[in-house]
Amino acid sequence: MILSSRRARFIQKLAVVWAVPIGLYIYVQNLGCGYQGHSGPTVRYVLTSQAVEAGTVLTQDLIQLKDVPPRFLPNDAVLADQLHNCFGSVFSESVEAGAVLLATDLEEGKCSR
Fold first, then answer.
1. Do 26 and 58 fall within a single domain?
2. What is the dihedral of CA 30, 28, 26, 7, to 10 degrees?
3. Which of 106, 50, 51 is nearest to 83 (CA)?
4. Does residue 110 sit within a domain?
5. CA dist 51 → 17, 46, 47, 70 (Å)
6. Residues 6+ away with beta carbon under 8 Å from 98
7. Going residue by residue through the chain (113 aa), what tens digit of pLDDT does each one get?
């Protein structure tokens, strides 16, 4: 009996030892595949092309546009078709480079959906 219980624990440990790296490998292979290959509708959204300090006026050189399925965006993300209302707005807080531009990043009321 003792021998079979040791063997069972060994097999369980061996299964865990193999399951962890296999699971990690599968996870790493799927990183970045969140929406690639998605054939559904997309929206063009705005993100910052560089870090922006609070008090900076929004201009064309501070942004870039990308397409993504709408389900991957926050509700207050600024969309490309809203930009005409947003230029000239002042950033109310600092924003990192590459961040999705949110209406709440800009002064109130000027750039809302």
1. no
2. -160
3. 106
4. no
5. 43, 14, 10, 24
6. 47, 48, 49
7. 555 788 888 888 888 888 888 888 887 777 655 555 556 789 999 999 999 999 999 999 999 999 999 988 999 999 999 888 889 999 999 999 999 999 999 987 667 65
Count of structural domains within the chain = 2
In whole angstroms, give the CA distance from residue 19 to residue 69. 33
Alpha-carbon gap, residue 25 to 18, rounded angstroms: 11
Q: What domain range is 10 assigned to?
A: 1-31
Domain-embedded: residue 11: yes
Instruction: Give the position of tokens 């969309």.
Output: 79
Q: For residue 80, is it within any domain?
A: yes
Q: Residue 68 maps to which CATH number?
A: 3.90.1210.10
